Amino acid sequence: MDIEKKRDLERIAVKIRKESLQAIKTAGSGHVGGSFSIAELLSVLYFHEMHIDPENPKMEDRDRFVLSKGHCAPAVYAALAIKGFFPMEDLATLRRIDSYLSGHIEMKHVPGVDMSAGSLGQGLSAAVGMALSAKTYQKGYRTYCILGDGELQEGQVWEAAMSAGKFKLDNLVAIVDSNKLQLDGTVEEIMSPLPIDKKFESFGWNTITINGHDVTQIAKALGQAREKKGIPTAIIAETTKGKGCSVFENQVRFHGGRPTEAEFHIAFKELDSRRKELEG
Amino acid sequence: MSEKIASRVAYGKALCEFGNNPDIVALDADLASCTMSVNFAEQYPERFYNIGIAEANMIDIAAGFAATGKIAFCHSFAMFTAGRGYDQIRNCVAYPHLNVKVVGSHAGLTVGEDGATHQCIEDVSLMRTIPDMTVVIPCDARETREAVKAMIAYDGPCYLRTSRLAVEEITDRVKDYKFELGKGIILKEGRDVTIAAYGIMVQKAYAAAEELEKEGISARVINLHTMKPFDKELILASAKETGAIVTVEEHNIIGGLGSAVSEVIAENVLVPVERVGVEDEFGHSGPAEALLERYGLTVENIVGKAKSAIERKAGKK
Description:
heterodimer; A: alpha/beta; B: 14 strands
């Protein structure tokens, strides 16, 4: 990846953070921590990896994306708006009663969303269905699914992992946003899913562990997944919850908790200076 | 009398018959030879997937297929689709309005000797409370075929309840039988009371009406094969025309047909309603007919409830 492209993707990640934070602020609630930890993942997926067309969101051979950790919808909505699936100003309607942008990711009304999610543990199964459909009907599209690391506590994730291994879904990529925190505390304290890579491997997956905030590493891993034939790939993205704003980073309370006005202020300031840095 | 056929058997044949539609895929959770999805599996192996004993995964995989434009049928016992898969059906099938057809076979007590853990008497209640769900329970082989055909034609989430117990044809009692989702069918005209039923209790409802006739009581029998959308018009018309209603179902007395009818009646026209169902208790191992007997799902009980409803109508009770 050249420097310009890298900087571009990093800029978009900052924009995803800023727009999702603004939407959450306007809404009065929403999940900051997990939205921020997937910003680079979304930037690379939507602006580098996936074959999608904002002018034709239902395009038959589009790549599919499932946000299994559906509470991080603000970040995906921001990515979709930046990509041009719907007007940027609609982000300000997040969670509002008259808006089509619900608190958790929703496919029926939001252009560009391929699956509804929110009840954790289900997205990977749906992604398996999409990938299996591509195999059955000889379609070339790929399917991507982002899961939380806390979400791996849901047993259904491993049912899905088992089935993807069995069906040799090399057109499927699971990306674990391993930000180490969940609502009640640290993932490791509450119910550790570690080691994540060994678990996926035992179900017949190829695994790649990366720094989930390094756009170059993300793009490279997605490329490797594409090359890997005969088995699905799980990318374990080591991330920081709340990444990008000092006040949010590694704070359990920003799983879903509302920042104070002062915290919002600091966060926007830091995002702005990061943006300037990347533009400079 | 016609040959007795279980709706699960008729279902297996029907899915095969209509399986030439290339958009149909079928999934099972290691019960294919019981749910009878095995027929489809043999005929269309390239469009059949055994997901193993993982019903939640199966239902969401079906949702994934449907999200790519396919018609995904997924199968297990009612206990494990409607029961274990409730969250999956609600959030990943019904909420996004996906074209998934959830089949719950071996529903009710008549799964028999397997006992209470496998006797789902809550599925109709669970499924009908989900917004946007269509809930269908055919009463015989012919109706099962028609139901499958209609479900394929309908683009949206459906639940189909099938049974293990073989029953005789009953839809042949009506001349111009026509199946339409959401429309009940009058199987027998009557003036004094309406007996409403679905699934394998339709035959018993009909037999009860014949018993009543011997005593000079004219009972209308209606087959409510679609529990959702519910045919309120037919219920209200029957309430007005006969003045009393008895509901009959192989299901918990809470949440099923008895509840649905009571809801409609209470809000519109006050006529006595009597309910026949499992009286809010778990099932037991035993032969299907013996279980129906033990839990009061009998012709005799229906006759008694019908008389009781008529007495209440006349103000005698």
